[in-house]
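hey so u asked for the seq, here:
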Amino acid sequence: MVAVVDYDAGNIKSVEKALLALGEPAVITRDRDIVLKADRIILPGVGAFGDAMGKLHAYGLVEVIKEAVSRKIPFLGVCLGLQLLFESSEEALDVEGLGILKGRIVKIPDDKGMKVPQIGWNSLKFPNKGRLFEGISEDAYVYFVHSYYLQADDPGIVTATTEYAVRIHAAVEKGNVFACQFHPEKSSDVGLRILKNFLRV
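ran it, structure tokens below
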């Protein structure tokens, strides 16, 4: 069973539908016991960093997420869910992230002729090909919607990058923690393969 963490994020239902398409039962929940008994956990996300951290605190989910990660339950952050795993974001300078991974979230520069937010399909490169991308060829296209992007402290955890005004750390993997800045649940067959790979780790 996959627990999809419910903190009022925008893309929860699309994540659930993608998992059901793969034949995987999903439970949308903020119940501590259900999350910690899950085989895998997904932290989805569409929204603002500060508001999201506020809701995670309000629902008592910050410690639940940290405990789940410490228990080595496979964990996937998606879009804002990736950003929340890190220490800080320029979107909310006075708000601490979960700090599970080291790095910061910065604004995509809007002075290079590129529209911000980035909305649309972009190709991936694999500097350190991780388990999420098994069976997926380099330059595969996935779907992004974001104005902020990750700069990870450790390039060794970065499993995918993309180019959009700057080089964006598009996916990371460290131990049982995985995260994608793009939306696998909206990335057609490639995205379903990524989710299937997560279900196999």
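The chain is about 25% helix and 30% strand. The chain has one domain: 2-200.
lmk if thats what u needed
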